[in-house]
Amino acid sequence: FGGSTNALPGADPDGDGADNYDEYVALTQPDNADAVFKIASLEKTGANMQVAVSSHVARVYSLDVTPTLTPPAWTTVVSNAEGADGPLLLAHTNGTGLISAMYRVTVNVP
Questions:
Q1: Residues paired with residue 89 on neighbouring β-strands, in sequence order
Q2: Which residues of 26-52 are buried (b: 16+ CB within 10 A; e: fewer)?
Q3: pLDDT for 51 beyond 60
């Protein structure tokens, strides 16, 4: 972050759907469309759902769940998990009891 490609916080020079500000927060590269923050995997483990993301020690992560997207009613099930400079597993304890569930992970600067 420091060149003309990221001069505007709302710009998306690599066209990946994440603007420069979001790329800064997620510590992804604003000029590389393959470097985007996303859920890497979802895995059912017993009664839990485990959500994996790439993480960084300089960031914190939260896991939200909603049973529907019309309208969404997000509930935070993990908050402010510290990043690990690698894969981070976020567990929704007893998350498999939902009939349907949509997950999102948010990343923030602590």
A1: 52
A2: bbbbbeeeebebeeeeeeeeeeebbbe
A3: yes
Is 109's pLDDT higher than 90? yes
Question: Which amino acid type is present at position 100?
Answer: S
Long-range CB contacts (within 8 A, 24+) of 80-86? 80/108, 80/110, 82/57, 82/110, 83/55, 83/56, 83/57, 83/58, 83/59, 83/107, 84/55, 84/57, 85/55, 85/56, 85/57, 86/54, 86/55
CA dihedral sign, ordered 96, 99, 105, 106:
negative
C-alpha to C-alpha distance for 70 and 5, rounded to whole angstroms: 36
Location of structure tokens 């890497």: 40
Nearest in space to 61 (alpha carbons), one of 19, 27, 90: 90
d(CA 30, CA 3): 10
Residue with structure tokens 């420069």? 20
